[in-house]
Amino acid sequence: xxxxxxxxxxxxxxLIGLSAVLLMFFEGRIAGISGIVSRLFxxxxxxxxxxxxGFVLGLLIAPFLYMLFSGHTPIISVSSDPVLMIIAGLLxxxxxxxxxxxxxxxxxxxxxxxxxxxxxxxxxxxAAGFITVYIMRHLxx
Length: 141
Description:
Layout: H1 6-27, H2 33-38, H3 49-70, H4 82-98, H5 103-112, H6 116-140
């Protein structure tokens, strides 16, 4: 139970929900991270570059803000195997394209709008995650 952190999970969830609501209110856009990041690069050229860049910058600054307010360094564990990281990144990118969005777009914004497509996509994302963890922990070791 050492990873049971209800208060930080609750505050993180509230901040994610708040950011999604604010983005919808001010920009009229859904907070799908894969779509926001992909539209930072050409051929997308519109007047929303600064808001997209600001949203991504906020994601990158968040751990430092956490450190500033909590006094604790966030514990982040990432694989040191570059080949595994490249494969994982490609699979996540392929999944976001195949699913027409990512977990933030479908899971946070789509489910809150009761979108059947998002309910199905999020169910499939979660099932794939459960299966992957089972295989990695119990079959591969």
